[in-house]
Amino acid sequence: xxxxxxxxxxxxxxxxxxxxxxxxxxxxxxxxxxxxxxxxxxxxxxxxxxxxxxxxxxxxxxxxxxxxxxxxxxxxxxxxxxxxxxxxxxxxxxxxxxxxxxxxxxxxxxxxxxxxxxxxxxxxxxxxxxxxxxxxxxxxxxxxxxxxxxxxxxxxxxxxxxxxxxxxxxxxxxxxxxxxxxxxxxxxxxxxxxxxxxxxxxxxxxx
Length: 207
Known about the structure:
Blueprint: H1 3-25, E1 50-57, E2 60-67, E3 76-82, E4 89-94, E5 99-100, E6 104-106, E7 109-116, E8 119-125, E9 132-137, E10 149-152, E11 155-160, E12 163-167, E13 174-179
Antiparallel strand pairs: 1-2, 2-3, 3-4, 5-7, 6-7, 7-8, 8-9, 10-11, 11-12, 12-13
């Protein structure tokens, strides 16, 4: 018997053995590859503009975007609370032109930074209605660079130029000032602030 004939016999034996095993124990068919699902695009009334940003804070979903009211050239930033199941706008608050930071949750309230030519501010908002309930100035004069805030160790921390400010979430009052000499933020383009940053209009909430 030649080598090729021997190989054929071995292959045939293997095939017959596999068929017998499948007939006795049953062989499950390979699952069909899962089909990719296409996301559904939904048009949400009241959410028109540019620069849409989503943030989760305190178990709620918030969105912010820039919008230009009819007849005006300066875009205004909108902060809205969304229904996390449908993505629909539940409540919204519109601010005047400027720079609004991403919301964060602390002490039962929602906090956002508000930056403009009049300086930088930390705003306390009602997390449900988004109405402003308190305001604290960082003391920095480079609000056009964009304020920065964080929550850690039971306190809010606000960057105020070359100072680090510690704020009580319960009272929205300043509890400590830590000097960071020589520490300056940069503008969005990487230029050291504040002298070389393009000014922005101050934002105020309509209450």
